[in-house]
């Protein structure tokens, strides 16, 4: 009975790889089910081996175990099939570029350890409530190199530059400077304050270009979630010719539409989050929602854009990226949408997982294409 109960629990967890999580803590579990699925597979294999010994409930235990095993393996299988076409798809979008010694996805890559590049924290802007800082990861490859500015997530009201630092180290190891910035947070500050902070971080890095060996003509903005909205808005409105591209990890691109379709309240009160950032509801401040919608600022002059989103995202609907993808297409902007059918919000918590590997490859390919 214990083995059967365990397999039923594992089966229910496996469903999070194909269905949206219905509550906050199940969303966190969904990240584990999607991106650490090999752990659950290993447990199930042990259960299956033990269950071949005749015992009570042997048949139902084996049946449920094999079904759960198949479902847990699905993100890995789907990542494999996406990896077979991602290079050609990105070549069509951005031109043919080689990403040296990097595969889009590999099974051994699931078990790799992360690297860590030392960084320094420096102030880049004074505000009425103290200094804003950035974590600067110098390129591990000598020479004048492009710089990626990373804008963290956190519903515009939390989070900091230390969030999900693993990709920063990967980029630095591949020859890019990385500046992970802090910005002014809601509700004390509202849009466009964070975009202004990105602008000032750009100006600061340009001043430091000679001393820090930054290629001042090659900046890329990368944001996650709320940070992606900020990065997109900055990329589309600042019109800085030195910003060569924008990378959007599961960001809200249409704030007007997003307010009309709130998230599951058991996950997040998305309307309250947006109201804190924009000064009130859409009914009372419609212009604020419009001014904060990156989608409305897309033009044929917008920089190349990489969108990365999971279809099972329960915090920021995948529809945001579909809408932005269509608008970029209409305006003839170079872009690519990497869709991960199984993935939820913050899937890149594990860079070695199926979604983490594919997204890292896409980022590296994009950087190679826009900084050459």
Description:
48% of the residues are buried. The chain has an eight-stranded mixed sheet, with helices on both faces. The protein is built from 13 helices and eight strands. The protein has helices spanning 2-14, 24-35, 37-51, 58-94, 166-173, 193-207, 209-212, 226-237, 255-260, 270-278, 286-291, 319-330, 354-370; strands at residues 120-127, 130-137, 145-151, 177-181, 214-224, 243-249, 305-310, 335-340. It folds into two domains: 2-87; 88-370, 3-Layer(aba) Sandwich (Rossmann fold). The longest helix has 37 residues, at 58-94. With 372 residues, the chain is of the alpha/beta class.
Keywords:
single chain, 372 residues, alpha/beta, Rossmann fold, 2 domains
